[in-house]
Amino acid sequence: MNLHALRLFTKVAELNSVSKAAQTLMISQPAVTIQIRNLEKELGLTLLEAKGRGISLTQNGTFLYKQAQRLFDLETDIENKVEQLKNTGNEELQIASTHVPSHFLLPKWLAQFKQVYPATHIHLKTANSQQVIEDLLHYKADLAFIVKEDGHHADINYQFLMNLDYWFIVPYNHHLAGQTVSLAELMQQPFVTREDGSSTKEYLNALCKVHKIPPPKVGLQLDGINESIHAIAAGFGTMLAPSIAASSFILQQQVARVFIKDIDIQRPIYLCTRKNELHHSTSFNNFLHIINESIM
After folding, report:
1. What integer is the mean pLDDT of 3-17?
2. Can you give the residue ranges of the HTH lysR-type domain (predicted)?
3. Which CATH architecture best describes the domain 3-68?
4. Per-residue buried b or exposed e for 180-191, using 16+ beta carbons within 10 Å of the residue's own CB
5. pLDDT on residue 212
6. Residue ranges per domain, the chain?
């Protein structure tokens, strides 16, 4: 495959314009058009089609664009890692994680790792599950941690680490505090929910669908676990929270559990890596060893 032509196509797809791509790359528009036509001929696929006065990607074009993005993201990742080795002589470990592992599990594992391997530079990015997987696929992370039951990506390996209990919580003086109620009854309460792309929000909606009841009424939407639990502690709403995050608030009598008839929730935590990646860095393998030792 002609990688130069692929790079030009990727820029056209990114900007949704041949002329803008040509201007950005400082080459003529006809030159870009010729390269893309040659690429289509080489692949035997139509990648672009006319749409009004502009162009749009075909289904095959969309597929190739996503794959090409990952290829050029890998190129950037290699360049960055080489530069890191040249500048410091040490490896860098990029980690992406959803909020629960990032706040309540990774600090311990990272502290143990740094005590043994102090020279390795580590960057941890916290985001929702959708963004975490995107970062991993596009080589913005070397490994990732998520809490998610299903909807696994075909290009990702999921290594099960552990299950976490999840509880419904309300303010400590709430009339449902400590009570056992039906799921339908609890869903009548205003909920503190997470942002779109959050696996907890997806799980809660799926739970309601399985039990054939309307999803919860959203009273407040916040982007983080701690912010959400603090809102509950301040006296508003209910939420589904990991026990590892809520237990200290319960001990301090700031929030209380609500028990649901015949429903106990456990959610899995996975360590995620890219498929078909046969070799990992020494830092990656050392960190994985630390995690496995910790959870045994």
Report:
1. 87
2. 1-58
3. Orthogonal Bundle (1.10)
4. ebebeebbebeb
5. 94
6. 3-68, 78-161+269-295, 162-267
The residue with greater pLDDT, 239 or 195, is 239
Tokens 């390996």 belong to: 157
Are the CB atoms for 156 and 133 separated by under 8 Å? yes
What is the percent of the chain with per-residue pLDDT over 90, rounded to a whole number? 53
Measured CA distances, 149 to 26, 86, 268 (Å)? 47, 41, 6
| The two domains 3-68 and 162-267 share their CATH topology (first three levels equal) | no
Report the distance separating Cα 204 and Cα 192, nearest Å. 12
pLDDT band of residue 243 (cuts 50, 70, 90) is very high
Question: Which tokens in the block code for residue 189?
Answer: 């309460």
Q: What is the pTM of this model?
A: 0.73
Higher-pLDDT residue of 1, 60: 60
- Let me know if domain 162-267 sits in CATH 3.40.190.290: yes
Q: Which candidate, 74, 192, 200, 73, places its Cα nearest to that of 129?
A: 200
Residues in CB range of 52: below 8 A, 6 or more apart: none
CB 225 within 8 A of CB 199: no
Measured CA to CA, the distance from residue 11 to residue 39 in angstroms comes to 14
